[in-house]
Amino acid sequence: MERLRALLRQTEFHVLLFFVCLFLFGWPLATSADLEQLELMFVYIFVAWTIVVLLLFLVSRSQKDVDDSE
């Protein structure tokens, strides 16, 4: 668990998360989607957004642990 907290505190992880999000949300919008695939794209965007929010929550909790100990 401490290794996960250490990973979430690193600035490099934050930069990696930014570029992963840029790819996750930019790729579906850049490709031309058929109207038949619109429901699938909605589910994809919603699931990706949920995962990103969860990761950002974990990052904020790991930063709070550092601030409380100081």
Please outline what is shown here.
The protein has 70 residues and is mainly α. It is built from 3 helices and no strands.
Structure overview:
With 70 residues, the chain is mainly alpha-helical. It has 3 helices and no strands. It has helices spanning 2-9, 11-30, 38-69. The mean pLDDT is 82.
Tell me the layout of helices and strands:
Layout: H1 2-9, H2 11-30, H3 38-69
Helix pairs in contact: 1-3, 2-3
- Which range best describes the helical content: under 10%, 10-25%, 25-40%, 40-55%, 55-70% or over 70%? over 70%
| SSE order | HHH
Q: Low-confidence stretches at least 5 residues in length (pLDDT < 50)? A: none
Proportion of residues in extended strands: under 5%
Mean pLDDT: 82
Total E-strand runs = 0
As an assembly, this protein is: single chain
Shape: elongated
Sheet having the most strands = none
Separation of the first and last Cα atoms:
20 Å
Number of continuous helical runs: 3
| Protein structure class | mainly alpha
Radius of gyration, in Å, reads: 16 Å
Features:
mainly alpha; 70 residues; single chain; 3 helices; elongated; 0% strand
